[in-house]
Amino acid sequence: MVLRRLLCVSLSALAFAACNAIVGFDDFERVGADAAPAEAEPSTPDAAPRDAEVVEQPVVEAGPDAPELASTTCPAPAPAYYPPWKSPAPRAKPCTPSDLTTFVTHEGQTFESQKAAMEAQNAACAACVFTLESDDEWGPIVKTNDGRVFVSFGHCYARAGAPDTCGDGAHELEWCLQKICNVCSDGQSLADCRLVEREGGCKRGLDRTLAACGNNSQIINNTCRGSGDVVAVLCGGK
Predict the structure, then answer these.
(1) Which of 56, 74, 95, 154 is placed for a possible disulfide with 184 were both Cys, Cβ 3.0 to 4.6 Å?
(2) Is residue 165 part of a domain?
(3) Mapping DSSP to helix (H, G, I), strand (E, B) and coil, where does residue 159 land?
(4) Max CA-CA distance within the chain?
(5) Which of 29-43, 164-178, 185-199 tops mean pLDDT?
(6) Domain range holding 137?
(7) Domain-located, residue 193
(8) Tens of pLDDT along 64-86?
(9) DSSP secondary structure, 55-87, as one string
(10) CA of 96: how far to CAs of 7, 160, 231, in Å?
């Protein structure tokens, strides 16, 4: 089996595989099999647009009402709180292929800028795609209470046909990796932090995902590979 890392790849309109792919199923298998991160492929520099977005929002959780500036040294502490998993309900899919292109084009920007660009083109698509952590139902892209942009890979897995246990495990894993590796301007690179912490502070989420998603490699590696795919599955456009 070819072992690969889903780091930031070119944002083609065909694949819509954007920089913030969670991991591919091959990545799950490799992390479980390799004893030391040093055996992994050479580190690939993180893409500038994604790094710029993350650094613009250097915050981590400091309690329910008190966000604070994050340390820029990765890894940061593991999260103490995980939002509860909610199985994605069927919903209208108002987005078009042109909307997906707009989403990918503006992905390196802030949540507000991305949403504004989409609203100018298709307000119904923007309402489906961009949601808040406090909303009753999450869309593909969620602005968290502490200012991060969270991509709902777990919801994509479940909506594409994987069991809820698979979506729930991936939901925990991605939340954990984003919290620990939110800002990596010092210490580990973003890519290395995410790789190492799958077997570190986020191991429980990785183990849960491995156990529940074993029969869904097609969904993880292809259907929901990148954030544009998550938008397409949950809100349409392909």
Answers:
(1) 74
(2) yes
(3) helix
(4) 49
(5) 164-178
(6) 25-79+94-235
(7) yes
(8) 333 334 456 788 888 889 999 99
(9) HHS-EE--STT--EEPPSEESPPPPS--PPP-P
(10) 26, 18, 10
